[in-house]
Specification:
The protein is of the alpha/beta class. About 45% of the residues lie in helices and about 20% in strands. The chain is globular and about 65 Å long.
Length: about 325
């Protein structure tokens, strides 16, 4: 009997030791948007530090298509062992749930939240031909010119379309939506006056704001954006609108807790390093961090909020 107890104890100890060795082989991170973009940079900046700390490669794999849902589905269906992760965004873990009728995953049920890395809010922008310097002045101008103003988005069902629709709802205005095929043609349209307004992120818009080619009216965030501390939020101007994007790490549902805790600890540690903070700030983002539970709450709120906006605005998507 004592012999069997000894064998069992040894086996349990070995199992416990194995559980503590995560990761013991390379980990892949699915990036659902094209290589060379902000997501690519975020993964490289953070996970070169995590890799050094844990002694295993974190290999980025690009899986694009269908608004990020193709790559995200890969992770939802992967083995929940901590060796397949996804870089989640406000599209893949927020607006897609509201705009895609046949989304092949459930953003809440099918994933294990690990950690929020960084966030960046949308900026409310207008072409300088619009006689408005604040969000309230723009709302008043739109009310005086119903149906005569256009706003652009990254495409039908995109996150900045939904954010702008929320602004229209709380401001009580009607501005015509013009969808474009991505950020570059949207910027060109606003520069040329083809549209009068849009929402975009700091990294894309800041150079044009500084040159005077765009006028910045407000920030769609709960608190002032650290990179534009003198610019009031839309909420401060009477329009409680929060919208933007984020970069977060999630894995398949039912990931081992030791893997979640290890990744969360090391990413949070990396986010405190001065060179990481500097490089993420240069991408136009604010460093986030935090617990897995906090990320889970963000995802649940995003899904609920944008689903409600689509319903309230009676938005239709093909």
């Amino acid at each position: 009997m004592k012999r069997w107890l000894g064998v069992l104890s040894a086996a349990l100890f070995a199992g416990g030791a194995l559980a503590q060795t995560y990761p013991d082989r390379p980990v892949r991170i699915i990036n659902t948007f094209p290589a060379g973009g902000s997501g690519d940079a975020v993964i490289r900046v953070v996970f070169e530090k995590v890799s050094a700390a844990l002694g295993q490669p974190f290999v980025q794999e690009t899986r694009t298509g269908a608004g990020g849902s193709i790559g995200t589905e890969v992770v939802a269906k992967a083995a929940p062992d901590g060796y397949t992760l996804v870089l989640g965004t406000a599209s893949t873990f927020g607006t897609n749930s509201a705009t895609m009728a046949k989304l092949p995953y459930d953003a809440v049920r099918d994933f294990t939240p690990v950690v929020m890395i960084a966030t960046t809010p949308y900026l409310l922008l207008v072409n300088p031909s619009v006689p408005a310097r604040t969000a309230r002045e723009f709302a008043d101008y739109a009310k005086a010119n119903p149906g005569k103003l256009n706003y652009g988005s990254f495409g039908n069902g995109s996150s900045n379309q939904l954010a702008y629709e929320l602004f229209k709802q709380v401001a009580g205005i009607e501005v015509v939506h013009v969808p474009y095929k991505g950020g570059a043609p949207l910027i060109t349209a606003l520069l040329g006056g083809e549209i009068q307004s849009s929402m975009d992120v700091y990294a894309t818009a800041n150079a044009h704001i500084r040159s005077g080619k765009f006028r910045l009216l407000g920030v769609a965030s709960a608190k002032r954006f650290s990179l534009l501390p003198d610019t009031p939020t839309l909420a401060e101007q009477g329009y409680p609108v929060e919208g933007g994007t984020f970069f977060a790490i999630l894995g398949p549902a039912k990931m081992p807790r030791n893997a979640v805790d290890t990744l969360n600890r090391e990413v949070n540690r990396a986010l405190q390093m001065p060179d990481v903070r500097q490089r993420l700030t240069a991408l136009g983002t604010e460093i986030a961090g935090g617990t897995p539970e906090e990320l889970g709450q963000v995802v649940a709120r995003e899904v609920q909020k944008w689903s409600q906006v689509v319903k309230d605005r009676n938005l239709k998507f093909e």
